[in-house]
C-alpha cells in the first residue's frame, strides 16, 4: 500500500498515518515544518511502516505542487491512497478587517487543496483505482459569524469534492469527504474544551477506516451528522439571530 499524506504534521493526519504504518505501508509525507516532519517520520518507522519518505513544502506555494506530486509518485513507484489534511483555522476577526488576510486563509484552506486535487485526480482517473480523502469540516455545512471565512473554504471544498466524487466514481476511484467536529489538536488550543471535543486518535482512526472502505462522506464522530442536519435545517430568519 503506497500512501501520500499531505499536511502530515497535522495531529489528526499523524493518527491516520499510524494506522497505515501498522499495516506496513510505504508512506510519503509532506509538510512545511522539517523538524516536526522528521519526528513523525521516525515515529511511523518504529510503528511498522515499510518505508517513510519526507518532502518539505509550504502548501501555500501552489506552483510547487506538481513537482511535489511527481516526486511522491516516483519515490513510491505509484500511488494507492492520498490524504490531504493541512489547514489553518485563522482569525475570523482579522479576516473581517483585511482582504489580504481573508484571501490568505482561502488560499491555504481552499485554493491549495483544489490545486492538489486537480493534479492528483487526473493521475487517479487514468489509473482507474485508488482513494483520495480530504479533511473538510462541519464548519463548511453552514456559515456562522464566528468562523465563516474558514467555513467558506471548507464549504467550497465539500462542494468541489462532491463533483470530483461524481466524476471519479466512473473510474472506480473513491473520494472521501471527512467532516470532523471539534477535535483536540494544536488547531484548537485556544478554544475552551467541552463534551463535544473528540480525540485526534479516534478521528484519525475513523479516517483510516473510511479510506479502507471507500466511504463517501464521513462525519467524525458520527453524532455530528444529526447535529449538522439540525443546524442546516434551521430557517435563516431564526439562524441569523443566534450568536454562533
Ligand atoms: N481540530 C479541529 O477541531 C478540526 C475540526 C474540523 C476539521 N479540522 C481540519 O483537520 C485538518 C487537520 O487539522 P488538525 O486538527 O490536525 O490541526 P493541526 O494539528 O494544527 O494540523 C494542521 C496542519 O496543517 C499544516 N499546515 C497549515 N498550513 C500549511 C501550509 N501552508 N503548508 C504546509 N502545512 C500546513 C500545519 O503545519 P504546521 O504544524 O507547520 O503549522 C499542521 O500540521 C485541517 O484541515 C483542519 O481544518 C480540524
**Helical segment count:** 9
- Residue windows where pLDDT falls under 50 for at least 5 positions: none
The number of strands is 7
Overall radius of gyration: 17 Å
Cα distance spanning the termini:
42 Å
Order of helices and strands: EHEHEHEHHEHEHEHH
What summary fits the major beta sheet? Answer: 7 strands, parallel
Bound molecules: NADP nicotinamide-adenine-dinucleotide phosphate
Strand order of the largest sheet: 3-2-1-4-5-6-7
Query: What is the residue-mean pLDDT, rounded to a whole number?
Result: 97
From the spread of the alpha carbons, the general shape counts as: globular
Q: Report helical residue fraction.
A: 40-55%
Work out the strand percent.
15-25%
Question: What structural class do helix, strand and pairing data support?
Answer: alpha/beta
Short summary:
This protein is of the alpha/beta class and 244 residues long. It contains 9 helices and 7 strands. It has helices at residues 11-22, 34-46, 65-76, 92-97, 99-127, 148-168, 200-213, 224-233, 236-239; strands at residues 2-6, 26-31, 51-56, 81-84, 130-135, 173-180, 217-220.
Describe the structure in your own words.
- By secondary structure, this protein is of the alpha/beta class.
- The protein is built from nine helices and seven strands.
- It has a seven-stranded parallel β-sheet, sandwiched between helices.
- It is globular.
- The model has no long low-confidence stretch (mean pLDDT 97).
Amino acid at each position: 500500500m503506497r500512501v501520500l499524506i499531505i499536511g502530515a504534521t497535522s495531529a489528526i493526519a499523524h493518527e491516520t498515518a499510524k494506522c497505515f504504518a501498522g499495516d506496513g505501508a510505504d508512506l510519503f509525507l509532506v509538510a512545511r515544518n522539517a523538524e516536526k516532519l522528521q519526528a513523525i517520520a521516525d515515529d511511523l518507522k518504529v510503528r511498522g511502516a515499510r518505508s517513510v519518505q519526507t518532502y518539505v513544502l509550504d502548501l501555500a506555494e501552489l506552483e510547487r505542487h506538481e513537482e511535489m506530486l511527481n516526486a511522491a509518485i516516483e519515490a513510491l513507484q505509484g500511488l494507492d491512497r492520498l490524504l490531504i489534511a493541512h489547514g489553518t483555522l485563522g482569525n475570523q476577526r482579522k479576516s473581517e478587517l483585511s482582504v489580504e488576510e481573508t484571501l490568505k486563509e482561502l488560499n491555504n484552506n481552499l485554493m491549495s487543496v483544489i490545486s492538489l486535487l486537480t493534479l492528483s485526480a487526473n493521475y487517479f482517473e487514468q489509473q482507474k483505482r485508488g482513494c483520495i480523502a480530504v479533511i473538510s469540516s462541519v464548519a463548511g455545512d453552514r456559515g456562522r459569524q464566528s468562523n465563516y471565512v474558514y467555513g467558506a473554504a471548507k464549504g467550497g471544498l465539500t462542494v468541489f469534492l462532491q463533483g470530483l466524487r461524481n466524476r471519479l466514481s466512473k473510474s472506480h476511484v473513491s473520494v472521501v469527504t471527512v467532516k470532523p467536529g471539534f477535535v483536540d489538536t494544536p488547531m484548537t488550543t485556544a478554544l475552551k474544551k467541552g463534551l463535544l471535543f473528540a480525540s485526534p486518535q479516534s478521528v484519525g482512526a475513523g479516517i483510516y477506516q473510511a479510506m479502507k472502505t471507500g466511504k463517501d462522506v464521513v462525519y467524525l464522530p458520527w453524532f455530528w451528522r444529526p447535529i449538522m442536519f439540525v443546524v442546516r435545517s434551521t430557517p435563516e430568519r431564526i439562524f441569523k439571530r443566534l450568536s454562533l
